Amino acid sequence: MQKYFNTTGPCFSEWHYMVPPLPRLKGVELLIEQGQYFVIHAPRQSGKTTYLYALMEKINREGRYTALQVNIQPAASGVDAKEAMRIIAMQIGFHAKAAKLPDVEQPPPLSERKEELNFLRGYLTDWCSRNPKPIVLFIDEADALRDEIFLALLHQLRSGFELRRDDFPHSISLIGLRDVRDYKIRLRPEQTSLGTASPFNVKAESFFVDAFTWEEVEGLFDQYGTETGQLFPAGVKAEIYRLTQGQPWLVNAFANHIVGRILDGNVRLPITLPLVIQAREELIQRRDTHLDSLMDKLREEPVRRIVTAVINGEVLEGDRLNDAIAYTQDLGLITRKSPIRLANPIYQEIIPRVLSYGWQLSIPSDYAELAWYLKDGRLDMDALLKAFQKFYRRHSEAWLEKYDFREVGRQLLVMAFLQRVINGGGRIEREMAVGNGRCDLWIEFGPEQFVLELKLQHHSWSEEDGLEQLARYLSRLNLLHGYLLLFSTDPTQSWEQRLRWESREQDGKRITLIGM
Predict the structure, then answer these.
(1) For residue 506, how many other CB atoms are within 10 A of its CB?
(2) 125, containing H or E segment
(3) Of 36, 90, 120, 478, which is least surrounded by CB within 10 A?
(4) In Å, how far are 216, 223, 448 from 219, measured between CA atoms?
């Protein structure tokens, strides 16, 4: 069959163009040799299950251990921990048959076991006593379980840990979105961290499945080029990597969309940068399962706090935010390095769009006609922002009052307005990071580029900082003019005091200061 770029489920080398999975995690096989228990975690559709299948096949081929990957997500439907442990045992039997383990290595039938409190521990002990080889067990989707079921699973695995030389799995790995270190049930602030008293304190190490490196992305595209003769030019590969930052699903989605949808499988047509731009917009608008599942997380309180801080450019303060940061990082929504920002330009584009989509549709048509802001085919940004200033005065208080993300409502309202007007005629890119103290927008319309800085006026020096920040940003982009939108946060100020339109000079740059 013709290989393709996979965006659903694990990858298989005979079906898919794929990055070699085993080199992506170093040190796992050593821990297995040592009989250790450990954790593998990463965002959804990052390659965890692909890695597990490849490692399971390698271990079983070598013949020293019985390796099995088992997805225990069905156990989440259990009415209580006792039933859930039985479902996990059923899943072990199901996956063992699917993996075609030899008969002598198959787990025992469930019918031979009596109901008991530690059902799963007993089941695993029975399997180990019958199996001629030590067992290596990969438990996938572990953190999909409800709190009490997840904790029951951890307790039963820990209680068997000391028996692993003969009567319990030699090595066990838990795989999921989250690390179990300092596991807090649902991250509720009133819960205390399990810390060193964690029911899985037998864990030796945690491994994070990171995004593809540049070399891995390049190698993936070169596989396709070698097989089909249709090459991804260097500039195209670089732009896809910039937009995705190597996120595996996004990388494959870009490639699949370009060659499979836009070019409809015609390998004689060239792959060009305009196709990347087209794919970017169409992927954002399609919002496939991967993107939708991430967007569903935005209203969870830990995620909302961190995403709000990123868009506002706020400084994160307080130890209680540490778990929220770790959780949002484990979801793959933000970077794992400072400065903390949304994980890639695609997320930076789609998250504000999702949060402001209702507003974008609700903006009165009196403001939204692009033709009103065009002069000789060029975008009149002054006219567009004067229209927004008028719109903001008339509607912002009523709209912001009912908004869940009110802390970043002003910035999102600007983005919704611009998206509604510019949509289809140009493109907008956002730059946001924790601690920046601002949100920057870069707009391309035809041959022209525009830079807007959105900043909340919290202090007397906010204006001075904004002018300096925008001048530096303009220098980085080699532009001479930009717009500073300064939003008052003082409820005692009248609209006459807030609304301004002034021209400033800062470090050789011309800046239009717009007070709101």
Answers:
(1) 19
(2) helix 119-130
(3) 478
(4) 5, 6, 35
Whole-prediction pTM value? 0.85
Distance CA 28, CA 49 (A): 14
CA dist., res. 190 & res. 457, Å (int): 33
Residues 128, 216: Cα–Cα separation, whole Å: 38
Burial of 274 (0-12, 13-18, 19+ CB in 10 A): exposed
42: enclosing H helix or E strand: none
Q: 294: which 2 tokens?
A: 């991430």
CA 308: distance to chain centroid? 16
Query: How many residues does the structure list for the chain?
Result: 516
Check: CB of residue 350 under 8 Å from CB of residue 287: yes
Can you list the alpha helix ranges (DSSP code H) found in 245-344? 248-256, 273-286, 289-295, 301-312, 321-330
Residue 307's region, left for phi above 0, alpha for psi from -120 to 50, else beta, is alpha
Q: What pLDDT was estimated at residue 24?
A: 93
Q: Give the pLDDT confidence of 106-137 residue by residue, as tens digits.
A: 999 987 666 677 889 999 999 999 999 999 99
Q: Would you place residue 416 in the very low, low, confident or very high pLDDT band (cuts 50, 70, 90)? A: very high
